[in-house]
Amino acid sequence: MDILIENGILIPMNIACHESTLYFKGYLGIENERISFISHDKKDADEFVALHSDCYRIDATGKIVMPGFINTHTHVAMALLRGISDDVPLMEWLEQHIWPVESKMEYRDVLVGARLGILEMLLGGTTAFVDMYPFEEAVAEAAESVGIRAVVSPCLMDFKMEHFENDWQQIIKRFSNSRLVTIMMGPHAVYTLSEQNLQRSITLSKELGTGNHIHLSETAVEVENAHKKYGMTPTEYLEKAGLFKTPTLAAHCVVMSERDIEILSRHNVSVAHNPQSNMKLGSGIAPVKRFLDAGINVSIGTDGASSNNDLDMWEEMRTASLLQKAVTGDPSVIPAYTALQMATVNGAQAIGRKGELGVLSRGALADIQLVNIEKPHLYPHTNLISELVYSTHSSDVETVIVNGTIVVENRKCLSVDEREVCLTAQRHIDNLLSK
Ligand SMILES: [Zn+2]
To answer: According to the model, what pLDDT value does residue 19 have?
Structure first.
């Protein structure tokens, strides 16, 4: 279906922040899965209608039209585990609470958890996410059926290697022609992988032409243990192992030395910054200002819903900005437009799709959200970028388009029965906790 969005305020996100006009009132046309024009001129809209007389027209008066968010680090199926363990540190949380339940989870549980998490993300304007989990095949299936773009990373851990080998092969078999699903390798972390299994990830990513998505230096304990075991930091170890010769997306990067930062910068490693999960698990605060100063591409992730405890990119973006101001004592750090870039264009770069995602431009894929700004908490309109980053909630998102298809309209997801998704998730977690 071809779509014309009319009279909205368009934020293309491909304009440098020093330019005076970061948004304009205008029109945007979608042909199949891509944006065919974006313009302030009504003549272009008339021309589009002449060529596509049966196009679906969306009146975006009083709405912001902007790229959907790209959540660059999550474990979407962990939406199922939301609230099962809070207020404990990472290793205790994993070893005593999360891993015991996860060990009982089967394909169907992951599918059900992923559907819940995807629904939450779509309703809040997230149109793409990067995932890592066992049974990524189920996450891919959920993404395709609900209608969100997903980069799935089958998870390599020493005690789950057989599972991994089956998972990635099934994903390639079922989803290699998918419009929505792509794959990255998911070496879990330095502390859960032998050198041999890390090499397996590197070799396979080279063979398949994919990147690697890894947890890196999330806590001080992880860094201390790497020092004890290898005599170096996790970042130095991964460089030595050759991981960074493949396109790499590193999640967290909380405890980083100057040398670590230099290594990431030199190898063009992208960072997925997860401020709320890092805060909740007491892991610390990633030195994002230093990353940005070093020219590192920093994107934003929510991490799993069981350490956040939601998948809300609006909150995450705001926290990313506010937290760096607090910790550096400098309110000019991560200004609003930079935060918006981290949640959109930088995310696209982190998954190797710069120019194609995270922007509204001719030829880009139509992953778009419409935000209703006719609300008291968004008035008066003086600076829309500031409004979006510092005042908007995910519940202000009204319409969401993924790959040229409307998946959310008037705050309702069109592809699933929302109540059914929630109740099925409830049944599955009740069952898992009773086992
Ligand atoms: Zn994670």
So the answer is: 61
